[in-house]
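Write out the 3D structure for:
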Amino acid sequence: MRVSAQPAWVLHVRPWRETSMLVELFTPDYGRIGALSRSVRGPKRQWIRAVLQPFTPLRIDFQQRGELANLGAVEPAAAPLPLSGEAVLAGFYVNELLLRLTPRNDPQQALFGRYCALLDALASEANLAWTLRCFERDLLTQLGYSLSFAHDANGAAIDPDARYRIDPEQGAVRALTSDRSAVSGAQWLALAADVEPEQATLRVLRRVLRNQLERLLDGRPLRSWDMLGGLIRK
């Protein structure tokens, strides 16, 4: 199968044997793909190594054969995004999430759009913690682990003044007011409504969403959780 001019972002790249590179790419029509870029480590091919980096929008040609594709023509679709500081760390965190949680060769048009929007937000002055929480929510939704924001596990409407424990299988379960692991209904509804909450609520939502992600990661923590440090605790 030959594919031409497919939009793509690099998630990760590493050397492959003596002259090639193994590139993990994220595309709308084919999801995450692993591709070999051959004979790119000589001085005459230095330009392609510079292009095959995270946070540069690409157009790629590739031929899919088995698990790994052969990468053909690669060209930047636009200039690299001007990420710096904590925004770069946040971008690497999201890339690792996609590497660990999305299957190869599975179309991801909606999630690709959310990823593009996330990178645009990281390049702006958006609140990084809130931007990450929204993407984590959208990632869980696209992977089929959508949690109901409108109703609790018993089908009752979420009460803004009540407290809920977010169960990975049941969703929002009414909790005692003394339950420190619980989230308020107002906090849960804020995440659903895309309304940026106060900092204390962001910390609560971070904990709740991380619990969901840890379950999917089967106890294998992300390297970027240590690298990010304080940012993902905000």
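Strands lie at 2-16, 20-27, 31-37, 58-65, 68-76, 163-167, 171-174, 183-184.
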